[in-house]
Amino acid sequence: MKNVTHSFIFLGHWPSAESFGFNTDILATNLINLSVVIGVLIFFGKGVLTDLLDNRKQRILSTIRNSEELRKKAIEQLEKVQDRLQKVKLEADEYRKNDEYRKNGYSEIEREKENLINATFESLERLENYKNETLRFEQQRAMNQVRKQVFQQALDGALGTLNSCLNNELHLRTIT
User: Which top-level group of life is the source organism from (predicted)?
Assistant: First the structure.
């Protein structure tokens, strides 16, 4: 360590032209080289580094602005989609209500249909009974008429036989 401090203290006392050679003190030469390189970089690279950082800053700011615009557009689209979703939900609810009304209407129509079919069967049954009663009535009437005609013919035949067999005298005797 003494060599390093010794070489810094006596920088001004180096003989300038005594001999030309390599300095083998690594620490002393590295510090001098590093300070020279850093100085040159700061002096010449300051503008380039500033330009690079400014460009990077502008790109970051434009990216942030673009992201903000995209975020605003996404929020607008989200609001539109939410509005559309709300409308679709309302339409779905309306459809469900209509579907329930339709189902209720269909079930009511089915009940009315069944009631109508049952009423038709009952009407047909009553008509069948009425027809059967009418047929029995007509059969009875026809039988009564046939009986009446048979009775009339039998009576006419008996009267004819009586009239032909009876003469006046027999007739008077029968009456008395």
Answer: Eukaryota
Range of the domain at 135: 28-159
pTM score? 0.36
Please give the Cα distance from 159 to 170 (Å, whole number).
Answer: 14
Inter-residue contact 88 to 81 (CB < 8 Å): no
**Which amino acid does the sequence have at 176?**
T
75: confidence class by pLDDT, cuts 50, 70, 90 = very high
Mean pLDDT of the chain: 80
Give how many domains the chain has, as a whole number: 1
Crossing angle for the helix pair 26-165 and 2-9, to the nearest 10 degrees: 110
